[in-house]
Amino acid sequence: MMYADAEKVKGMILWWASLSGPKALPGTYTVELTKNKVAKSQEFTILKDPRSEASNEELQAQFDFILEVRDKMTEIHKALRNVKKVKTQIKQLKESITDKEKHKELLDFASKISKEVTVIEKNLYQTKSKSNQDPLNFPIRLNNKLGHLNSLSSIGNFKPTDQAITFKNEITKQIDKELADLYKIFNTDVKELNKKVKESTVDLIQLD
Fold it and tell me: Residue 117: which domain range?
């Protein structure tokens, strides 16, 4: 039994990367089914693979490690979806403005935001990858590196190696820096752009 996968981004191409959650640990669980407002529950037990030489502590370490990786992947992908929303809506805004000179300051500010989030987007994900062959031609980015670590760490029933932990910490530090920069743009510049649009005389719907 597996925990839920990390959230995905539609059309994203990754190389040898897993978005899977960890395997459930041995123990007793409860399943609950509800139909027509009637709920029934049943306990069940997941047994440890008798072939596994891993201790419960090692299994727990693997579980915690993969769960942290999965959650960070979800955070990245949520942020990337918001980048796409920002860029799409800025594009629509720019297209809706006919008097470019009158609203030059607004347009320049919008373009600045779009460029800045694009830089961060490209650091987090290889945006040039459009097919499964593209990762052979373009270097993978931070989310793919973390997803690849997830693939390797999910093999077998072993606690993460010291190298895996060090790599995860290094990559996560880089990811967190990119996300912090991105959240700052979302929380300051994007809000400021919304304010500028509201204060402007831009007509979002224009007829010929």
Answer: 27-199
